[in-house]
């Protein structure tokens, strides 16, 4: 597991964790949804769907009971920001889940925790119990009669695919973690077939912070399409790896300066399934409209073999594919074999063209985000480092 050794100051440090919950209860459900929508908060797990719209759709969906589910299956290679949130800011996450519950009229929340984070369960259970004792969880929250919300923890079993929201729901229901066909979407038919607001750990923490300080505070930084702050797990060839909070729209070059990266040839934005950016692209901004703002950023110095990097990523995807759909199950195996041929200088230009075409097929035909995004690193590395890759004449 990647360990961080540096943490900058977060905006959470300037907010009391349950101020947002108090404000939310005072304003009511509709005001909460309006405030989060106005803030332009988007899901912090990578997909970037409007959080306010997700709350609205779940609140308006037909069917009861309704649920809040926190996706804490932090399995993307290179990401460890959720671990930081749970260790030092768990109250913000749990308060955000409670706020979401009051907004959609749900009485129960489920925290789906990555199996490798089992060591955090004792800590989180203590935080939950303290919240119950302080009347911040359970019945009549903060003395408001009839306002109740409870949270329970469920552990995953180490499957990367369960980071995909519908595979996570399958796992919660006791089935094999495989993505569902969509529609229907979780907001109308989620956990146990009921309307479910399912969001990332950081997203719930941001909900609590926004309700405490207001939508205007959050959207005062960032870009027009990517408002506010974002946590990033930054690792690799840099002097100060760790969890950083940066304004959306920060350039790759500025980020590299902050973490003390020198002689960098490439940056992987968004984890293994994100995009591999060449040094000529370091003027790009980390935002939904530009470089992927997922939680993991991996820095590669000039001495790194980028084909070895691609091989490492593809070995991971071959291992973690759920095997449900052919493009992902078979395609990643073919791409991995192709990388091995390239590393051994036995891949012809014609066969490389076939592999690139396979990547495009996988992006279109795979059932979920794993198969759709797994070819990204292969394509980017082939494109950006083609002059450094010897292709045999076979």
Fold and architecture overview:
- The protein has 394 residues and is of the alpha/beta class.
- It contains 16 helices and nine strands.
- The model has no long low-confidence stretch (mean pLDDT 93).
Main attributes of the structure:
de novo design (two linked rop proteins), Rossmann fold, 13% strand, five-stranded mixed β-sheet, four-stranded parallel β-sheet, single chain, globular, 394 residues, alpha/beta, 9 strands, 3 domains, Ubiquitin-like (UB roll)
CATH architecture designation of the largest domain: 3-Layer(aba) Sandwich
CATH class label of the largest domain = Alpha Beta
Summed up, the domain count is 3
Number of helices: 16
Q: Classify the beta-strand content into a percent band.
A: 5-15%
Helices and strands, in N-to-C order? HHHEHHEHEHHEHHEEHEEEHHHHH
Q: What's the main sheet like?
A: 5 strands, mixed
User: Which structural class fits the helix and strand makeup?
Assistant: alpha/beta
> Which fold name corresponds to the CATH topology of the largest domain?
Rossmann fold
In what order do the strands lie side by side in the largest sheet?
Answer: 6-5-9-7-8
Q: What gyration radius follows from the Cα positions, in whole Å?
A: 21 Å
Give the CATH H-level superfamily of the largest domain.
NADH-ubiquinone oxidoreductase 51kDa subunit
The whole-number mean of residue pLDDT values reads 93
Shape: globular
The percentage helix is 40-55%
